[in-house]
Amino acid sequence: MTDTTTRGLIPLPLPAARALLLAGGIATAASAFLAWTWTSEFPGDLTISGYPGGLQWLTFIAGILSTLFALAAYGIRGLSGLIPARNNAPLVLTALGAFGVTWYTIVSIAAELGGLANLEPGGWVAAIASLLPVIGAFALPEPRTASAKENLKAYLAKPDGIPPAQPLSPWLERAIITIATIVGLAVFTYGIDTEYGELFVGFLIVVVFGVWALHTAGLNDRFSRIVARNRSFTLAMGFAAAIAFPFTQSNDHYANIGVNILIFGTVALGLNIVVGLAGLLDLGYVAFLGVGAYTAALVSGSEFSRFSGVHFPFWAAAITGAAASLVFGVLIGAPTLRLRGDYLAIVTLGFGEIFRISVNNMDGQSGPDLTNGPNGIPAIPDLNLLGFNLGQAHDVAGFTLGRFANYYLLMVLIMAIVVLVYTRAADSRIGRSWIAIREDETAATAMGINGFRVKLVAFALGATLAGLAGTVSAHVTYSVVPTPYQFAGSTPPNSAFLLAAVVLGGMGTVAGPILGAALLYLLPEKLVFLQDKSLLAFGIALILLMRFRPEGIIANRRNQLEFHETGQLDIPEQTTLSGEPAAVTKAGA
Amino acid sequence: MNTLPQQLANGLLLGSMYGLIAIGYTMVYGIVQLINFAHGEIFMTGAFGAFTVYFYLLPDGTSMAIAVPLMLIGGGIVAILIAVGAERFAYRPLRGAPRLAPLITAIGLSLALQEVVRNFYPHADRAVAFPGLDGTHDIGSVTIKDADIFLVVAAIVCMSALAFFVRKSRTGRAMQATAQDPDTAQLMGIDTNRIIVIAFAIGGFFAAVAAVAYGLKYGSIDYRMGFLMGLKAFTAAVLGGIGNIYGAMLGGLVLGVAETLASAYIDDIPGMHLFGGGSWKDVWAFCLLIIVLLVRPQGLLGERVADRA
After folding, report:
1. Which of A85, A108, A337, B308 is most buried, with most CB under 10 Å away?
2. What does the pLDDT look like over B135-167, one tens digit per residue?
3. A130: Cβ–Cβ under 8 A, 6 or more apart, which residues?
4. Could you tell me if residue A12 is inside a domain?
């Protein structure tokens, strides 16, 4: 170690650091097979030697990941492809992931059972074993600067120039996408099926650090290149995975979570057209969902509906609900969209209030008799599609699909429609006008874009899609009541929830709002202590996200550049005919 | 009781409260073109600040003549601290960012402030009883409460002081210059950051005055009170012409009167008998906002076209 500018934070020779990483990773994975505590009072039963339970599986997986990356850093043939970026960050992150999940488990055992005495020797072994790779990781050499913050950042950094991958055969690329989809489905299913809060927290720790490690290793970049070459295949695989989800569920409760995630994800995607593409802040979006839901409930044939004799078939109800939302969207949008965007925010907020007050009052006492006031419209009959009653369980190919699984599959169809509308609109002439308007309205108008008309189309389209999703959600929940359709409330989907989902996931992307909605729905669902504080968390998250990562988890590249004002937007991105960004711009810019 | 003069008086009283809150929106908007959605929550924290002074700091049985000024100071300090803190730590780092960013921050701040009060202020998950000033006076056929007198006096004093400050003082003229053109103002040696902080602070203090008046008038406060009041006050600011401080007061008065008259008399219109009463009054206020934006988007006193980019 003669070079003083590149050395580890912890003074250890490089071979020792690597050996610590490898040995620690293996030891962590192995320690999952020991007994960590003496009583099965801690959920997951961590008492049996030789058979891991609950959180121990997560420690095992994190240990294996850490080991794999440590081996790849040794340059073992066949594994070196794991770190195309040739950096230390994936090692640090997987080590931290394994450490995080193990210590989280140990600390929660001690905290919940009352003291460290409840740990078996195996627990201590795991704690020490998972600490070793962390020490090793921070002993890896990195360039040193004067500031401690920069030194730490260097351990998590992803280098800019990642050497391009060798071209793979199309079949191999598709096989990689298929495997990635299956792994993704397995991870997602595991997350939804977690039975207790501790397991979900552990799951989140492993997933966050794992994905982050893959990202810094440069694997995400490689994978998105492959996806860019096989776009329709990936989309098909994505929907195949979405359809496969209910077949993996034995319990309809989890299918219920799935259908809720799909509903909120679809609505968030609709909001993303308005917020993410056109840059219009719509704070009353959930009211359009409510309009769709109430319309569908009124024509559903429920005996509590004002028009109880009317029973539309589903396609007619869906069109009616979407059309009603469209009418309201145009009514609200037409006067306000001529003005600056800020007015739209406040008028939509006002519209949300008008909707809430109206549905609460229209009970025949303090207003016209239409919505039954706070009681809502209960007893909405189940849908019947092509002679297929969605309310009953059906056996398909040996699997039993319950009520929620049926609706889940219907929602997959609706979401496919919304994704299709979203991507086709975003790539069209009007989608480009939306982005132009979002980035500079004056310049866009000067280029001949009719700002008002284009914005109205975005706003109305968003409203229509929300109305469409609302028609299904009315049937899924049996009844429509006013509470979910307000600006901020404890039950999703309120407008604050949807906005937070879009911003957290990533404005202007397809996957972002769906991921955001899934996360924001699952977190309070799994972590009971968060339920009361979820709105507080949304608020703080919005402030922090805008301050530190306005582009969200999944960044839209154009958004990212605009938010961070790097000046790179001025340089036209060089693309080849296949739509693959040329490597030169990245390194050169 | 429900005579036209009484309704007009009620409307004007409600309107002066809207006007006081609207000042905060309109001053901030005039200078940095930002809708501070969290202003309604600053109003709410002002109410809780005043309540804290009354309930936790003052000895029991303090005369209201002493308590009210101290509550004004307490509420004012809390509201100003939160308003200035929001500017410093949430909005200032985003100056120059795309327009959407500060708007989303403002929404987040509004949610966070509500939830902080609900979760961490003792017993704030329900309505909190605020000391009221309930003595009544009859002037002709109109009955008003002591709290109403406080509100009217406070509104007149605040507005006159603000008008004097903006027109005559050095800082006030610097404020006008910054509102007209921040870059040029900065070149002329004006510390625009300081001006912005002062605008937030004045808005926060006026909101706290309105909050004390609200508590004294209605006798109870709760963590959600800022949402609707903020929305209405913003409507008032738009109605009067956003960016114009006289417009904010005028807009507040017009909105207050319109809302009160609508809830009192709209059910006399044939076919509208089901839309009367207090439960629909907010709907009429927002309909008024939409109509104003349709017919006269620059507001009653606004000179500038509202869609200046």
Report:
1. A337
2. 888 887 888 888 899 999 999 999 999 999 999
3. A24, A28, A31, A59, A63, A98, A99, A102, A103
4. yes
Q: Are A183 and A281 within one domain? A: no
- Whether the ω angle into residue A513 lies within 30 degrees of 0, i.e. cis, is no
- With an 8 Å Cβ cutoff, are A279 and B238 in contact? no
Q: Are residues A79 and A180 in the same domain?
A: yes
Mean pLDDT value across residues A347-370: 81
Tell me if residue A524 falls in helix, strand or coil: helix
Distances (CA, A) of A396 to A104, B88, B282, B303: 41, 59, 52, 68
Residues A175 and A93 in one domain: yes
Minimal C-alpha gap between A369 and chain B (Å): 9
pLDDT of residue A88: 80
Out of B98, B104, B279, name the one closest to residue A361 (CB). B279
Nearest Cα residue to A274 out of A420, A429, A427, A434: A434
- Whether A210 and A313 map to the same domain: the answer is no
Q: What's the pLDDT at B304?
A: 54
The reply to whether B80 touches chain A by the CB within 8 Å rule is: no
Q: Which residue of A has its CA nearest to B234?
A: A346
Domain limit, last residue, from A198, A229, A260: A229
- Is the same domain home to A223 and A256? no
Q: Where in the sequence is the domain holding A357, given as residue range(s)?
A: 251-558
B94: nearest CB among A361, A546, A562: A546
Domain C-terminal end among A195, A229, A263: A229
Q: Do residue A324 and residue A203 come from a single domain?
A: no
Half-sphere exposure of A271 (CA within 13 A, CB side): 36
Chain B residues near residue A545 by CB distance under 8 angstroms: 104
User: Tens digits of per-residue pLDDT, B33-88?
Assistant: 888 889 999 999 999 999 999 888 888 877 888 889 999 999 999 999 999 999 99
Stretch 250-309 of chain B: residues touching chain A, C-beta under 8 Å: 274-275, 277, 279-280, 282-283, 286-287, 289-290, 293-294, 297, 306-309
Q: Mark yes or no for CB contact A546/B101 under 8 Å.
A: yes
